[in-house]
């Protein structure tokens, strides 16, 4: 079994430094919601300081890892005693102790020495190992039933009832501890003695089940008792029994009927151990209340079919069927190293109106992703239907043309026993509006609650500014990004697609990382891409490859490399680079061997997708002056990827021949690109689209001393020809905002960001959007191709918000925000920004406001980091730090042509520039 991911355990220092106070926070596990059952032999350990102490730097650490809490409390590091290590590293420290076996537990703590003194030993933290070898799973049978039952069907609109499974067990002794290891395909809910285990929903995370299968681990000690117990599961369909089973099999990958494998490992107080495993003695019924569950089409629940106490002791299952041994899915059995989805928040509807058909339209006030909880009272057999949509037609009815053949309807059939409350288990919807039918009275908004569902990851970023349009765009981005986190990054949550397209996240993952702690999500996604790679090196457009699209592009497939680079830059995570370098190199070689002709990359599939078209009514532009040649896109992007691969080769100490090859090939491509596409008279590339010019500028491909002329030409295209509006599609928009700012036109980037007229992000806001549209003209174009909740058109906007407006940027030299670059563009057009970002070292804050005479800037730098801070003045005498004149303080600074540059250590600073 492959051990390809590492866990970061954030341990928060307790005790106090002798000369400074250090606060205490609860222990956390940053990379896992639950640090149980990992299958990484050398997890990476990290900790944070929780303190306001200024200029705090770690100098030494000492880690103890023990096999029991008792030994740890006695300072016996029988698994690993690192000794005192002189280092300022406080994240990603690799465990280097004894090799751990399956189900071993490791308790650990750390003591730290700093320039301010020594801490006490921290509180303890824990991780435990999962099942590390296939042999330990081999005797555990996969069970299921590969048959259709009454009401089931296979086809374009497949229906399959949920499988209700139970097993009664007799535990002869008192339980000391117990853990359960479960793989429930496609989705599961697990119960013990009537109680649901865990708060996860839609678990486990999706994979290509023929390549890798994730198991979840839960501590169930408190859920079991001596004597009779019952294990119960409900198996839903998920992506295993796919939404369109056996429909377009040449395109849509399916995996068969739901199945599961489970081990319950019980340790008794006398030291003995028992393992309960799935086998043919487990019983099931397909005749429970969940009659169908299909991610595209919705869930049907018949409350009349409920089986009270089905998952508890004493239930009569004599009429249930025995499950059968079935073939395993085929993929590696791996611990899930990223959080499951959960219900993260709730949304209350803002209105309910009656239609002419006596149904009701519910408005949630926000385009959201999840489902609706229903409260209803009625007669036995009454049927309530809820159909979901993102917007309404002019007549007030649902607008569903953009959902294609997704039926997106949940149905609840009442049992007729007073007030009934229900919500689905195995579907999710993207929606703002819901048509509700079947009530025999007028419901109120209090009868419904929206449940917001996405991966259980933390919000890490906040942003507000003096421009309300930009603030609403940020809110729209926040709702769109989190709604499309579904154990993988999907493109949209509402129609019959919901696929993890690579091109949507090439740069998008980077921007998203400021808003959400998406490290484990994207580490897992790199594995999805790797497992989807063909034997000769090809990478799909969608990974996992639920759709068999292998287009052999560069701008889409390049996400594999760009996401690994993001993880390194934002989180200091080298593991993704080291693990995936061979596969990335294989793909780069594949593209070179198959599509590099005359030193140019000739293969492109999608172009600069979703360029604003010449007419508001059309989806795809036909105007050749708006479209960028595919060879321009792929050649420039391949050149860019070569530069990143060279950096990866240096980081991983790979064969020096790789570095030489990347350098040599880059030079050839740059020359061929300029020879063919650079116009020396107009200082433009190809047909002079903004995208054709921004890529060579962003990638450093422009001939020496001509960058400014190419940039001025591009500015003319943006500012004059396009009237200060966006004219790029998915590829160009990834680099537009930062390139404008880096070359001195942050004011023009600000105009694009704050625009309210078409095409712009603000135009979406002005037309009622509460998420980001798929199309710049999403309110007028053909409805068959318009998701109102996509994130691909964000490009580098969120990066620009944080790095260029707030001034929160990780240094390339010291990644993961070990060193912070704080260089806001104070002259772009904003008068204040208040932003924060929770880095792996702690919270970074940047709050600035300016008037004509003064700039005030509040800065917080986490302990054990430093910041390089750029001020908009060349006169140090005009600067005050914490109310003291800079030139009278001990703060290190220098004066450059662009202004005063401070070098700050950790702490909170009040900076004033007159």
UniProtKB/TrEMBL annotation:
User: Which intervals of the chain form a coiled coil?
Assistant: none
Q: Which UniProt keywords are listed?
A: Hydrolase
MF annotations from Gene Ontology? alpha-L-rhamnosidase activity
Describe the location of the Alpha-L-rhamnosidase C-terminal domain by residue ranges. 812-883
InterPro entries in alphabetical order: 6-hairpin_glycosidase_sf (IPR008928), 6hp_glycosidase-like_sf (IPR012341), Alpha_rhamnosid (IPR016007), Bac_rhamnosid6H (IPR035396), Bac_rhamnosid_C (IPR035398), Bac_rhamnosid_N (IPR013737), Ig-like_fold (IPR013783), Rhamnosid_concanavalin (IPR008902)
Reaction catalyzed: Hydrolysis of terminal non-reducing alpha-L-rhamnose residues in alpha-L-rhamnosides
Q: Where is the Alpha-L-rhamnosidase six-hairpin glycosidase domain?
A: 459-805
- Stretches assigned to the Alpha-L-rhamnosidase concanavalin-like domain: 355-454
Q: What is its EC number?
A: 3.2.1.40
Domain Bacterial alpha-L-rhamnosidase N-terminal, first and last residues per copy: 173-343
Q: What SUPFAM superfamilies does this protein map onto?
A: Six-hairpin glycosidases
An example GO BP is:
carbohydrate metabolic process
* UniProt-recorded name of the protein: alpha-L-rhamnosidase
């Amino acid at each position: 079994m492959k051990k390809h991911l590492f866990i970061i355990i954030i341990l928060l220092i307790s005790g106090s430094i002798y000369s400074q106070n250090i606060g205490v926070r609860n222990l956390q596990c940053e990379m896992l919601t639950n640090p149980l059952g990992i299958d990484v032999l050398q997890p990476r350990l990290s900790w944070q300081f929780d303190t306001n102490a200024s200029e705090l730097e770690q100098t030494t650490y000492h880690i103890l890892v023990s096999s029991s809490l008792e030994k740890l409390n006695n300072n016996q590091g029988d698994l690993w005693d690192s000794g005192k290590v002189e280092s300022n590293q406080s994240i990603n420290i690799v465990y280097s102790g004894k090799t751990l076996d399956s189900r071993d537990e490791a308790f650990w703590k750390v003591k730290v020495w700093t320039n301010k003194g020594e801490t006490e030993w921290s509180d303890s933290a824990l991780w435990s190992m999962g099942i590390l070898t296939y042999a330990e799973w081999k005797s555990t049978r996969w069970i299921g039933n590969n048959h259709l039952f009454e009401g089931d069907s296979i086809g374009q609109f497949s229906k399959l009832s949920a499988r209700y499974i139970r097993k009664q067990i007799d535990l002869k002794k008192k339980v000391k501890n117990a853990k359960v290891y479960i793989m429930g395909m496609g989705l599961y809910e697990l119960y013990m003695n009537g109680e649901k285990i865990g708060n996860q929903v839609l678990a486990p995370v999706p994979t290509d089940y023929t390549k890798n299968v994730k198991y979840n681990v839960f501590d169930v000690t408190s859920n079991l008792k001596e004597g009779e117990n019952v294990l119960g599961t409900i198996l839903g369909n998920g992506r295993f029994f796919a939404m369109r089973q056996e429909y377009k099999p040449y395109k849509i990958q399916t995996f068969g009927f739901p199945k599961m494998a489970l081990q319950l490992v019980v340790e008794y107080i006398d030291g003995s151990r028992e393992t309960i495993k799935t086998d043919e003695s487990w019983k099931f019924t397909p005749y429970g209340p969940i009659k169908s569950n299909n991610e595209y089409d919705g869930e049907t629940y018949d409350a009349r079919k409920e089986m009270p106490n089905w998952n508890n002791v004493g239930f009569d299952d004599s009429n249930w069927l025995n499950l059968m041994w079935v073939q395993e899915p085929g993929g590696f059995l791996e611990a899930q190293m990223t959080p499951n989805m959960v219900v993260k928040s709730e949304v209350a509807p803002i209105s309910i109106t009656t239609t002419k058909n006596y149904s009701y339209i519910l408005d949630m006030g926000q385009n959201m992703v999840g489902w609706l909880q229903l409260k209803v009272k009625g007669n036995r057999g009454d049927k309530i239907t809820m159909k979901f949509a993102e917007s309404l037609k002019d007549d007030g009815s649902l607008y569903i043309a953009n959902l294609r053949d997704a039926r997106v309807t949940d149905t609840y059939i009442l049992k007729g026993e007073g007030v009934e409350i229900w919500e689905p288990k195995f579907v999710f919807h993207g929606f703002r509006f819901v048509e509700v039918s079947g009530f025999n009275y007028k419901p109120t908004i209090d009868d419904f609650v929206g449940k917001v569902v996405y991966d259980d990851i933390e919000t890490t970023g906040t942003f507000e500014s003096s421009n309300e349009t930009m603030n609403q765009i940020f809110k729209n981005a926040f709702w769109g990004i989190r709604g499309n986190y579904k154990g993988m990054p999907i493109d949209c949550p509402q129609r019959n697609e919901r696929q993890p397209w690579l091109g949507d996240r090439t740069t998008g993952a980077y921007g998203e990382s400021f808003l959400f702690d998406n490290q484990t999500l994207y580490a897992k996604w790199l594995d999805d891409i790797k497992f989807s790679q063909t034997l000769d090196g090809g990478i799909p457009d969608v990974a996992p490859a639920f759709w068999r699209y292998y287009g052999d592009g560069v701008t889409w497939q390049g996400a594999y490399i760009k996401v690994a680079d993001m993880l390194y830059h934002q989180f200091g995570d080298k593991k993704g680079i080291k693990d995936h370098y061979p596969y990335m190199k294989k793909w780069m070689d594949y593209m070179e061997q198959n599509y590099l002709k005359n030193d140019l990359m000739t293969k492109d599939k999608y172009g600069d997708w979703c360029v604003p078209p010449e007419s508001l009514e059309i989806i795809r532009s036909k105007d050749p002056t708006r479209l960028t040649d595919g060879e321009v896109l792929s050649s420039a992007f391949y050149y860019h990827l070569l530069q990143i691969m060279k950096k990866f080769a240096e980081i991983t100490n790979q064969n020096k021949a790789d570095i030489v090859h990347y350098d040599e090939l880059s030079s050839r491509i740059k020359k061929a690109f300029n020879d063919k596409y650079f116009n020396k008279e107009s200082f433009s590339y190809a047909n002079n689209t903004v995208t054709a010019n921004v890529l060579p500028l962003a990638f450093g491909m422009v001939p020496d001393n001509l960058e400014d002329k190419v940039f001025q030409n591009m500015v003319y295209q943006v500012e004059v020809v396009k009237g200060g509006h966006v004219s790029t599609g998915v590829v160009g928009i990834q680099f537009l905002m930062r390139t404008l700012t880096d070359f001195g036109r942050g004011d023009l980037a600000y105009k694009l960001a704050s625009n309210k007229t078409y095409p712009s992000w603000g135009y979406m806001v002005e037309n009622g959007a509460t998420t980001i549209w798929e199309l710049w003209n999403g309110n007028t174009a053909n409805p068959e191709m318009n998701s109102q909740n996509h994130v691909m058109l964000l490009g580098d906007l969120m990066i620009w918000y944080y790095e260029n407006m707030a001034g929160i940027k990780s240094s390339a030299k010291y990644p993961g925000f070990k060193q912070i670059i704080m260089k806001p563009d104070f002259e772009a057009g904003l008068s204040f920004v208040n932003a924060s970002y929770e880095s792996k070292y702690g919270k970074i804050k940047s709050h600035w406001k300016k008037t004509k005479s003064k700039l005030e800037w509040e800065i917080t730098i986490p302990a054990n980091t430093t910041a390089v801070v750029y001020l908009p003045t060349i006169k140090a005498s005009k600067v005050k730090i914490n109310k003291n004149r800079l030139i009278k303080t001990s703060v290190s600074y220098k004066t450059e042509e662009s202004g005063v540059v401070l070098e700050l250590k950790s702490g909170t600073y009040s900076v004033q520039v007159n």
